[in-house]
Amino acid sequence: MNRKIKLIWDFKGPDGYETAKHHCIHLREFAAIDNLPYHEVDAKQLNPFHTVAYIVVDEEHMKTFRDALKPHRGELA
């Protein structure tokens, strides 16, 4: 069974949510251009000054996304 990895980008400040939502557009575009599979792309506001954008990918594709997109961190999904 292949594990799922969540790659995460942090956005801080009062405009963080809007910036994170826009970042999600670029994550989807990157996957589409290179025809890479993913499970989910979304933004989640943790509090008014901290939002995360993330993409969930299979572990076998994680290095491709990680090396090209430089996430701030990752975790098992």
Could you give a short description of this structure?
This protein is of the alpha+beta class and 77 residues long. Helix content is 38%, strand content 39%.
Detailed description of the structure:
The chain is built from 2 helices and 4 strands, in the order E-H-E-E-H-E. Strands 2-3-1-4 form a 4-stranded antiparallel β-sheet. Helices cover 38% and strands 39% of the residues. The chain has one domain (4-76): Alpha-Beta Plaits (2-Layer Sandwich), CATH 3.30.70. The model has no long low-confidence stretch (mean pLDDT 96). The chain is of the alpha+beta class.
Whole-angstrom Rg: 12 Å
Order of SSEs: EHEEHE
- Portion in strands: 35-45%
Summed over residues and divided by their number, the pLDDT gives a mean of 96
How many helices does DSSP assign?
A: 2
Query: For this structure, what is the CATH class?
Result: Alpha Beta
Number of strands: 4
Number of individual domains: 1
Order of neighbouring strands in the sheet with most strands: 2-3-1-4
Fraction of residues in H or I helices:
25-40%
Structural class: alpha+beta
Instruction: Report the biggest beta sheet as strand number plus sense, adding barrel if it closes.
Output: 4 strands, antiparallel
CATH architecture: 2-Layer Sandwich
Briefly note the CATH topology name.
Alpha-Beta Plaits
Q: What is the approximate shape? A: globular
